[in-house]
Every structure is written in structure tokens, then in C-alpha cells.
Specification:
- The chain has 2 helices and 12 strands.
- By secondary structure, the chain is an alpha+beta fold.
- It folds into 2 domains: about 1-50; about 55-190, Umud Fragment, subunit A (Ribbon).
Length: about 200
């Protein structure tokens, strides 16, 4: 069967070689355009249904993400976990803007923050936060401890004292259904490109 395929391809090449140059050029151009269109359709479908490119606006996620970074975000088979960086919408804060923050606690977990010492506690234990710009000293509207309700997450920016997040009453606990997706990597600028942890 493989011999028949090879023979058929060889015959097609011979037929193409026998064609006048202008016909051959047109045919090769047509094949090239057809391949390009197929690739374009695959790319459009991929970015429409599986992955989105979203820009970072602001400094609330420094040092993990910088203002102007372009991120790849996806919600395919995504189940929110503590530590994930996510993009979500908040109808009560700014319905026209997507926010990017880090999940600190998930449903059923109790969160408390010692603002004097800048330490975040989950279920009574301090958590290790190597990703933050500085300790959490900005209270906003937070009064703890609080238990995260079912189907929700508690989020904060990595630049804790310059972030409006779940500590603010207008945002509060984030409904998982409003999560657009998890941030997987930065694709631009190229010198900042890489996976997001």
C-alpha cells in the first residue's frame, strides 16, 4: 500500500513537471494559499475555543506579571487550585474589565491575615509565598477569619499593597463561574516570555 502511495506522488510530480511554467506556478501558488488558509483556520479555532491572549493592565501582579505582558489563558479542563494565577470578571467591581489575580484559598478553606506581620493563614497555618512583592500589610475591607463558600475562591494580587482583590468588599469571594481561565504563560515581550508559576 505504501508503494502505491509513493508511486502516485511520483506520478503527480511528473505531471506537474510537464505543465507549462505559468500553469505550474499558478498551481503551486494555489497549493500554497490552500495550506495557508487551512493553517489560519486551525489557529483561529484554537484561539477561539481553547486559548485566549489577554493583556496585563496595571501593576497588581508584580513581580510575577508586568503591565503590558501578553498572557496565554485557558479554561479547558480547568479546576481552580490554590496558587493558580487566573483571569476573571467582577460585575460588582468593574464589569468591563477582566482582572488577573492569584488564588489563595478555595471552597471550604478558612483564610485569615495578620496584617501587622504581613502573614496569610489558610486553615490556621501560615502559607509560604515566594511570589509576592512584599508582605501583606494592606487591609482594605478584610475582617477575618473567613471561610470560602462553595463554588468560590479567594484571590489576591502578588503586589499585595497595590492590589484591589478579594480583600475589597466590591470583589470579595470570586465565583468560579466568572473565571475566564488559568494563566499558563507570558508570550510577550519576548524577554519576559515563560511559564507562570
Amino acid at each position: 500500500m505504501s508503494n502505491e502511495k509513493k508511486k502516485t506522488k511520483a506520478e503527480l510530480k511528473e505531471e506537474l513537471a510537464k505543465l507549462p511554467p505559468e500553469v505550474r506556478a499558478r498551481r503551486e501558488t494555489y497549493d500554497w494559499i490552500q495550506s495557508l488558509m487551512a493553517s489560519l483556520i486551525v489557529c483561529v479555532c484554537f484561539f477561539a475555543f481553547f486559548v485566549r491572549v489577554i493583556d496585563v493592565s496595571g501593576h497588581s501582579m508584580n513581580p510575577t506579571l508586568q503591565n503590558g505582558d501578553k498572557m496565554l489563558v485557558s479554561d479547558v479542563l480547568y479546576d481552580p487550585k490554590a496558587g493558580d494565577v487566573v483571569v476573571f470578571k467582577s460585575n460588582t467591581y468593574d464589569p468591563n474589565k477582566a482582572l488577573v489575580k492569584r488564588i489563595i484559598a478555595t471552597e471550604g478553606q478558612e483564610i485569615n491575615i495578620d496584617f501587622e506581620n504581613g502573614i496569610v493563614y489558610i486553615d490556621g497555618r501560615p502559607i509560604q509565598e515566594d511570589y509576592i512583592a512584599e508582605l501583606t500589610n494592606r487591609k482594605l475591607d478584610f475582617i477575618g477569619p473567613k471561610t470560602v463558600p462553595e463554588g468560590c475562591v479567594f484571590v489576591m494580587g502578588d503586589n499585595r499593597n497595590a492590589s484591589t482583590d478579594s480583600r475589597k468588599a466590591e470583589i470579595g469571594m470570586v465565583d468560579e463561574r466568572t473565571i475566564i481561565g488559568k494563566v499558563y504563560c507570558v508570550i510577550y515581550p519576548l524577554d519576559e516570555a515563560g511559564w507562570v508559576n
